[in-house]
Amino acid sequence: MVGLDDVFGDLFASVDSVVLFSPSGSYYERFAAVDDLDVIVVGTENAVGAEPFVELPLEFEEITDRIRFGLEGALEQGVIEDGDTLACATSVFSDEIDTVSRVRADAEAQTGIYDLFVKSRADPEVVKAVLELAIELGKKGQKGKPVGALFVVGDAGKVMNKSRPLSYNPFEKSHVHVGDPIVNVMLKEFSRLDGAFIISDAGKIVSAYRYLEPSAEGVDIPKGLGARHMAGGAITRDTNAIAIVLSESDGLVRAFKAGELILEVDPEAY
């Protein structure tokens, strides 16, 4: 007679490691006690004192985002290797782990999302909100047409000092924050016009329509990318900000930190 172990046993067969997302202490101990089993814990905090441990900057609601970020972090830290087969256990329907996915680590599929969050001094929720806004713009465009946009997040005071206004700043006397659905609609509308959006570490929209003036000397961006990407790369070299750029020509979302490209993602595949 065939049992459940026979049906679902393949999930754990020949795995290189088990990845536990925010496990309880008792759940972790059950796996840690298994001989010759590599156990990796991923979460916003290491409540079980696990080693190795990969930190999440925030609780990703979507399971795919949670696993994608955790595995990119594990690859970045050298905890797992390209091609490893992993059993990823996480919670979906309750506070306890209730779902297991079999995943193969793929270094070539890394987007750089781990670097984006880890290397930013801005609030992770702010980074997430801006990234999702850029991705939504990349998918839908502005009134059905492709649109480009540049968001500079963090170190807003220094960024403002290294830029000048192109037009009236509609956010000058406001205290609105990115992530608010109504504000996001406004940002989408303003994205049709030239200039960068400047957003503080806490998510306050400081300005729109800013012309960035840092020197582009020494900034190395991939061939084929234009002035918007060059400006984004240069401003992050001269400040502690990150820049998230939506390309009008190829529709990709890219992010820069310290003058370097750290993320490239296709909105349609995200």
Automatic annotation (TrEMBL):
<comment type="similarity">
    <text>Belongs to the adenylate cyclase family. DacZ subfamily.</text>
</comment>
<dbReference type="GO" id="GO:0106408">
    <property type="term" value="F:diadenylate cyclase activity"/>
</dbReference>
<dbReference type="InterPro" id="IPR036888">
    <property type="entry name" value="DNA_integrity_DisA_N_sf"/>
</dbReference>
<dbReference type="Pfam" id="PF02457">
    <property type="entry name" value="DAC"/>
</dbReference>
<dbReference type="GO" id="GO:0005524">
    <property type="term" value="F:ATP binding"/>
</dbReference>
<dbReference type="InterPro" id="IPR053542">
    <property type="entry name" value="Diadenylate_Cyclase_DacZ"/>
</dbReference>
<dbReference type="InterPro" id="IPR050338">
    <property type="entry name" value="DisA"/>
</dbReference>
<feature type="domain" description="DAC">
    <location>
        <begin position="110"/>
        <end position="267"/>
    </location>
</feature>
<keyword id="KW-0067">ATP-binding</keyword>
<dbReference type="Pfam" id="PF19294">
    <property type="entry name" value="DACZ_N"/>
</dbReference>
<dbReference type="GO" id="GO:0004016">
    <property type="term" value="F:adenylate cyclase activity"/>
</dbReference>
<protein>
    <recommendedName>
        <fullName>Diadenylate cyclase</fullName>
        <ecNumber>2.7.7.85</ecNumber>
    </recommendedName>
</protein>
<dbReference type="InterPro" id="IPR045586">
    <property type="entry name" value="DacZ_N"/>
</dbReference>
<dbReference type="InterPro" id="IPR014499">
    <property type="entry name" value="DAC_DacZ"/>
</dbReference>
<keyword id="KW-0808">Transferase</keyword>
<comment type="function">
    <text>Diadenylate cyclase that catalyzes the condensation of 2 ATP molecules into cyclic di-AMP (c-di-AMP). c-di-AMP is a second messenger for intracellular signal transduction involved in the control of important regulatory processes such as osmoregulation.</text>
</comment>
<dbReference type="InterPro" id="IPR003390">
    <property type="entry name" value="DNA_integrity_scan_DisA_N"/>
</dbReference>
<dbReference type="GO" id="GO:0030145">
    <property type="term" value="F:manganese ion binding"/>
</dbReference>
<keyword id="KW-0548">Nucleotidyltransferase</keyword>
<keyword id="KW-0547">Nucleotide-binding</keyword>
<keyword id="KW-0464">Manganese</keyword>
